[in-house]
Specification:
The chain is an alpha/beta fold and 339 residues long. It has helices at residues 3-12, 29-44, 77-85, 105-110, 140-150, 159-172, 183-194, 199-207, 212-223, 240-245, 256-261, 293-300, 318-328, 333-338, and strands at residues 18-23, 48-53, 71-72, 89-93, 114-119, 130-133, 226-228, 233-238, 268-275, 280-287, 304-305, 309-314. The chain has two domains: 3-207, inorganic pyrophosphatase (n-terminal core) (Alpha-Beta Complex), CATH 3.90.1640.10; 212-338, Diaminopimelate Epimerase, Chain A, domain 1. The model has no long low-confidence stretch (mean pLDDT 98). Bound molecules: guanosine-5'-monophosphate and manganese (II) ion. The site of guanosine-5'-monophosphate (5GP) has 11 residues, from strand 11 and strand 12.
Length: 339
C-alpha cells in the first residue's frame, strides 16, 4: 500500500464512520478471523461497524469474541442491505473479486461507500478504492496486523484482536507448515501471543471439537481416496448420500483434501463434494511446489485462489466431473512430473 493511500485511510478513519466488513462466501478461519479482528480494532476508534458474512460458517469458528454479532446476508438480507447502502466505508477481506461475496455482489458493486480491499489471493479485480493486495502473505489476518501497524496503532492490538488474527493465520498456513509461512509470519504470531492470543485454546477450539459423525465421514472419504501415480495426483469424492449418511454439517470436510496430498510422491490433490441443493460439485484443489492449482482451477473449474490452494465448481454430476478431471490430466503430465 502506498504512503498516500495509508495517509488517506488514516484521515478517513479519524472520525466515526458507518462501516461494513465483508468476508468471502463460505467463510473460513482467515475470513472470519480477519473480519472480526478488524471489527474489534474499528470499535476502539468509535466507528459503527458490522461484519456481514454472505452465509453461515462452521461451528468451530463460533468461539471468536463477538462472533454472535456477525450478520448472515442470506438470512438477514434487509438489515444487511440497509447497512451496506448507508455505509461510508466497506472493507472486503480475504477475497479478490466481488463475485466471491455470492449474493452480496450486486449491492456491494452499486454501493457508493469507499471500498478497501485487504487480500492475499492471486489476480485481484480492481473494484476497490484502496487495494491492499499482497499474494506473498500467508493470510489476510497477517495483513490486518500489518494494516493496523501501518496506521501506527500496533499498540492497540488487544487480546480479542490477537485471538481472531491468530486463528486465521493458523488455519490459512495449515498450522504454520505451508510455504506461505515466513519468518515474518512467526514474528507476527509471536507478537499476537504476547498480546493475549492463547494458541493452545485456539487450536483446541478449531481442531479438537470433532463430532463422531465427522470422524466417520473422514473414514468414508479415505475409503473413497483414489491415486493416479502417473500424474502424482490423488483425489477424494463424497456424494450427497454419503454426506447425509454421516449427518454432514458445514465445515465437516475442512482439511480432508490434505490427506490426499499427504501421500508419498503426490503433489496434486483434489476433493469433489456433491452439493445437491445447489446442483454443483464443489471442488477443493491443493498442490505442492510450483504446480499452480489457481491456474488449473481458473482454466477448468470456474474458480481460483492461490498457487497451492484453490477452489472451484463443476455443473456436471459427480461421475462426469471425475471423468472430466481425469481427461484433463494428460495435458498436465509434464508439469505434474516436473513440479
Ligand atoms: P477451499 O478449497 O478451502 O474452499 O479454498 C482454497 C482457497 O481458494 C481459499 O483461499 C479460497 O478463498 C479460494 N477459493 C475457493 N473457492 C474459490 C472460487 O470459487 N474462486 C476463487 N477465486 N477462489 C476460491
Ligand atoms: Mn485467506
Amino acid at each position: 500500500m502506498t504512503k498516500d493511500a495509508i495517509k488517506n485511510i488514516k484521515q478517513l478513519l479519524e472520525t466515526p464512520k458507518q462501516i461494513v466488513i465483508v468476508p468471502h462466501k463460505n467463510p473460513d478461519g482467515d475470513a472470519i478471523g480477519s473480519t472480526l479482528g478488524l471489527y474489534h480494532y474499528l470499535l476502539k476508534h468509535n466507528h459503527i461497524a458490522t461484519v456481514i458474512a454472505p452465509n453461515d460458517y462452521p461451528d468451530f469458528l463460533k468461539w471468536m469474541p463477538e462472533e454472535s454479532k456477525v450478520l448472515k446476508y442470506d438470512s438477514q438480507k434487509e438489515q444487511s442491505d440497509n447497512l451496506i447502502n448507508n455505509a461510508d466505508v466497506i472493507f472486503t477481506l480475504d477475497f479478490n473479486a466481488l463475485n466471491r461475496a455470492g449474493d452480496m455482489e450486486d449491492v456491494l458493486a452499486t454501493s457508493k461507500a469507499v471500498k478497501i480491499m485487504i487480500d492475499h489471493h492471486q489476480q485481484p479485480d480492481s473494484y476497490a478504492t484502496y487495494m491492499y493486495s499482497d499474494v506473498s502473505m500467508s493470510s489476510t489476518c497477517e495483513m490486518v496486523y500489518h494494516f493496523i501497524d501501518m496506521l501506527g496503532n500496533k499498540d492497540q492490538i488487544d487480546s480479542d484482536i490477537s485471538s481472531c488474527l491468530y486463528a486465521g493465520i493458523m488455519t490459512d498456513t495449515g498450522s504454520f507448515r505451508f510455504p506461505s509461512t515466513t519468518s515474518k509470519t512467526h514474528l507476527v504470531v509471536a507478537d499476537l501471543i504476547d498480546k493475549g492470543a492463547n494458541h493452545s485454546d485456539i487450536h483446541n477450539h478449531i481442531f479438537d471439537t470433532n463430532s463422531y459423525e465427522r470422524m466417520q465421514l473422514l473414514g468414508c472419504a479415505l475409503t473413497n481416496l483414489k491415486v493416479l501415480p502417473e500424474y502424482r495426483t490423488a483425489y477424494i469424492t463424497l456424494s450427497q448420500d454419503e454426506l447425509n449418511q454421516f449427518k454432514f454439517k458445514k465445515g465437516d470436510t475442512e482439511g480432508f483434501v490434505n490427506y490426499a496430498l499427504s501421500l508419498n510422491n503426490i503433489i496434486f490433490a483434489a476433493i469433489f463434494i456433491e452439493d445437491s441443493q445447489n446442483n454443483i460439485i464443489k471442488i477443493s484443489l491443493r498442490s505442492k511446489g510450483n504446480f499452480s492449482v489457481n491456474e488449473f482451477s481458473r482454466a477448468h473449474f470456474e474458480g481460483g485462489g492461490h498457487t497451492n490452494a484453490a477452489g472451484g465448481k463443476s455443473d456436471l454430476d459427480l461421475k462426469l466431473t471425475i471423468e472430466n478431471f481425469i481427461s484433463i490430466l494428460p495435458s498436465y503430465k509434464n508439469a505434474l512430473n516436473n513440479a
